[in-house]
Please model this.
Amino acid sequence: MTSPHPIWSVLGILIVALTIAAGLIWVERRLLALWQDRYGPNRVGPFGLLQVLADTIKILAKEDWVPPFADKPVFVLAPAIVLITVLMSFAVIPVAPGIIVSDLNIGLLFFLGMSSLGVYSIVLAGWSSDNKYALLGGMRGAAQMLSYEVFMGLSLMGVVALAGSFSLVQIVEAQRNLWYVVPQFAGFVLFVIAGLAETRRLPFDLAEAESELIAGFHAEYSGMKFGLFFVGEYLGVTLISAMITVLFFGGWHGPVLPPLVWFLIKTFFFIAFFVLMRAALPRPRFDQLMAFGWKVMLPIALLNVLVTGAVKLAWSR
Amino acid sequence: MIAALSVTDEIQDRFGNIVSAQTTRDHIPTLWTSRDRIPELLRFLKEDIGQPYRMLYDLTAIDERMRTHRDGQPASDYTVVYQLFSFDRNSYIRIKTGLTEDRLSLPTVTRIWPNANWYEREVWDMFGIVFDGHPHLERILMPKTWNGHPLRKDHPARATEMGPYELPEWKESAEQEALRFRPEEWGLTRTRDEEDFMFLNVGPQHPGTHGVIRIVLQLNGEEILDAVPEIGFHHRGAEKMGERQTWHTYIPYTDRVDYLAGVTNNLAYLTAVETLAGIHVPPRGQTIRVMLTELFRIINHLVWYGTFAQDLGQLSPVFYTFNDRERAFAIIEAVCGARMHPNWFRIGGVSDDLPKGWDRLIRDFLNYLPKRLDEYDTEVMQNSIFQGRTKGIGGLTVEEAIDWGVTGPNLRACGLAWDFRKKQPYSGYEQFDFDIPMGRTGDCYDRAVVRVEEMRQSLRIIEQCMNNMPGGPHKAEHHLTTPPLKPRTMHDIETLITHFLGVSWGPVLPPGEALGAIEATKGNNGYYLVSDGATYSYRTRIRTPSFPHMQTLPFLCRGLMVPDLLAILGSLDFVLADIDR
Model:
């Protein structure tokens, strides 16, 4: 199979990722509605599909307002960061054989680095808004993402040890016979939880916490800047789902159907799972979340690395 | 009555002739004393008397200046009324003290009951009576900038009596300045050991407060050091309106006091009215009332259930429970023609008989809801995150709860099986078989457990109503029943005239005082009515459960975190109109 020119990959992945993220707004609302015994958006276009378009037009037509008390440059920068870091991460995701923007040999580290940078968006947004609710949300977001990043990285080390590479393409190739969800089940569970926390979605939406902090870190945002946070969140969901697929569910591997279709099916499955989590779970308290991260998840992640390493060593002897 | 005699005797043994008794139509022992004796007498009643009156049930006042029927009562321009409740005796007592216009002050009782704080502020706000030694005697329901005291008889009741409203610039800025929160006024410090505290304004517009209330939090990080609830945004002068509406036309106003509990409010009000009038409601009327009241208890608890889960971040239950609530509303609509505020009960019974096929609707609902409740148990109550958020948060002991005037499910959650439907049955509750659900620690989780179980008990009561609905009239045969019964009007002139007067003016209730207190959805809701022998009430006092519950909030949330505040608010189950009236 010949690889397309990189520019086509770049454009293709960018457009598809953004379309999926926007489409997710509709998908999530319809799925939530389904699970919550109501209709959801069903008026604009067939099945309400054009709702996203209507929302986009509305949000673009809104006044681009910066509160007078806000720290303007930082306030403007913050929503851009979330979008840029997530989009950058898509660069290393192997969608199908040959369809990848850049097959970095440290692809996994690049992904982890980018998602670490994402936290700046929350902190800066919360801080620059000069709003107490936003500040509380920003602080929560910072603490939460920093602590969950620790074991997010650790949870993936088992996969790296098994595949013997940080390159995502090689990790997918290594799963030709056995998906890593089987030998790395603990790693998978840890990564899903850390991924939920990274995307700041229920039950880990403490930075936003509508019933407590109103909208938390983006309380002061409106119009397209709010739209960027919104799209950034859905891009994050897509990214984490794609990463779960790549790292634990064999990426594009699958019988009969073409690789691209397998990849999309698997990714959508996890996206739906993320939405289901939102429909089902309440939100833990801040200190409970931190305690859970440091006292439960981190030890399990370390244990997982230890056991994987030991087994791998014993195997290679 | 035996208890009534003995408590008067006990007081007179101890204090001599400083008290005089007054007879009331509700037979609650009512004693008068002088203002200086109040703290001493109330402390005696709370602490030293055998079987003490441990709860300050209500504290209010009456402007007596226009009242004509005051047989045997000491002269006074204003009367301050303390209503206490004894759980050991299962009875109320009413202590009154008269004040004259030239000296409108009396000692505070905030050192005896912590919940006297808000009640005394309310009396100051509404009547201008000063409580000496009160820690923070500020207006509570009216804005700080208000002129006059609304429940005085010379204060206008309608905007049209007050001249056009104007808001010039100076006044606008003065109003805005009055809204500024100054922590020092509340005895809160801004700093401690070079640490600055953050003051967070929660509300009046906040998704977690379920309405217009403002809670100012003194925060150290996310830890709540203190909280100051500010109420009054929902104040609509329901008590003042009681003084201008006829006994009959006031019923729809009661619907809107606890606006989630519909006819439950009617029942509390009418219990007082019927005590004044001496009307006994026939069994069918009583049973219809019980059935609808219990339906509304379920309706109220379903709203609470969903919104409580939502406060804790669970997005779905609110849709399920509101869906179930719609089914209950369908029954209410079939019976009453309206949904949330059916205005269905009447003096002496209910507005009309049940429609054909009502039992089928009830049966369907009885088959439907239990399964759903079981589902919610799995989804909400057994959810470990939910339990983590609610267990051990905002706990109360029985003693503390009584001290703060907490009643209803919130009191039962602390471990006291006290339900006025059982202890002081009204409207025929003594004939029903149901349990009193109870908690142990009084925390948010126990409060939830009690309410969830109460829905099941309410279903049991409704089922018994359905299976044993008595025949006969749904309204009493009494000349004060409103609207009066029609059949005999065309046969004799007396009935015709009574009917005409009852319909055109409204019934004239005999002079007297009565308290009608029931186990409403949120706690004890009492209407204390004073009739001066007119077609309308002389004084309508609405004692609502949410008022003392909200007052307990700072006590409950000190030392906890911001998310806990939302858990506590959700678990208390309050309604803003029920706080502010």
Remarks:
- Chain A touches chain B through 28 residues (CB under 8 Å).
- Chain A has one domain: 66-316.
- Chain A has eleven helices and no strands.
- The mean pLDDT of chain A is 84.
